[in-house]
Design a protein that fits this description.
12 strands; globular; 11 helices; Inosine-uridine Nucleoside N-ribohydrolase, Chain A; two-stranded antiparallel sheet; alpha/beta; 311 residues
Length: 311
């Protein structure tokens, strides 16, 4: 194994000690990004977690909650600031950056934005031995654009991405991936240390319900009440059943950085997302880390405890 491959495997190991983190999030898209952002900030306060949030980037999205990618990004930018206000962390507002206003048109042209530019510059302050960790929980346009702006950063960061489906799932029609397949291909083929948390077939098991939220979060603080309200609103609206559950899967990407027995993963050759929403596989591809299982109860106990102020 050559030195470059050994260096990649080092970056794909679970981090130890203090690490710097960037969160890239389409925060207004669903209700789970708010949980993930809050969980990350709670982890920053925990001396055992040893996390330092260097930047929070708003990612684009386009669905029935936005009029287009730019509108989705802007709404996410404002939602990030709202969560910071609820948590009393307005000191971080200067580290919040607007991201891409549209998705990548091809695999060679970056989408210029404050988020892509700050990430391309910030990552240069790190090294293969002590990389920057980038947790991405939306379309990965900002991260791919940063790599295209400055390819040197691929050896200086680790990308933890919640996106795509399980590798053995019948298709790869997953929202974060299919919005910007070109960006996903840049990240999967560019040689960056990549940790993938697939949606359908893996982290789709990380669900909660109204009763559980009411029991553990209701009345604890302003943030908890807000999170319960938005989950109950969306959960009831999006399910034909009274006994609904709601996936909060974005939390799992942050959990990969936290200390605790929350996830199971393994090293696999990196696949390539295709434009027909499937993967192609090559056993000779560089390695990535693939999360294949979630300890649902342990992670929710940690999440609820931190959000409610118990931990």
């Amino acid at each position: 194994m050559n030195p470059k491959e050994l260096s990649l495997l080092h970056r794909l190991s679970k981090p130890e000690g203090k690490i710097d983190v960037v969160l890239d999030t389409d925060t207004y898209n669903e209700v789970d990004d708010q949980f993930a952002l809050a969980y990350l900030l709670c982890g920053e306060k925990d001396p055992d977690a040893m996390l330092c949030v260097k930047a929070i980037c708003a990612a684009p999205f386009y669905n029935d909650k936005s009029q287009g990618p730019a509108d989705g990004m802007e709404k996410s930018f404002q939602e990030i600031r709202h969560i910071l206000e609820l948590m009393g962390r307005t000191d971080l507002e200067e580290r919040v950056y607007k991201g891409s206003e549209y998705f990548m048109k091809d695999e060679e042209t970056p989408v210029l934005s404050p988020a892509a530019e700050v990430l391309s510059n910030l990552a240069m302050e790190y090294s293969p031995e002590a990389p920057l960790y980038v947790v991405a929980i939306g379309a990965i346009t900002n991260v791919a654009s940063a790599i295209l702006l400055n390819p040197q950063i691929v050896d200086r960061m680790v990308v933890v991405w919640l996106g795509g489906n399980a590798h053995d799932w019948p298709d790869n029609r997953e929202f974060n991936c299919q919005q910007d397949v070109a960006a996903a291909r840049v990240v999967f083929t560019g040689g960056v240390a990549l940790v993938q948390l697939p949606c359908a077939g893996v982290v789709s098991s990380f669900t909660t319900c109204a009763g559980e939220l009411e029991m553990f979060l209701r009345g604890k603080n302003r943030l908890c009440d807000y999170l319960v309200d938005i989950v109950e609103r969306d959960g009831a609206a999006q399910s034909p059943y009274k006994a609904w559950t709601r996936v909060i899967w974005d939390v799992t990407a942050v959990a990969w950085l936290m200390k605790g027995d929350f996830l199971r993963d393994r090293l696999v050759p990196c696949p390539i997302p295709q434009y027909d929403h499937h993967y192609s596989f090559d056993r000779n591809s560089h390695f990535m880390r693939y999360v294949y299982s979630v300890n649902r109860d342990a992670l929710f106990e940690d999440l609820f405890g931190r959000l409610s102020g118990i931990l």
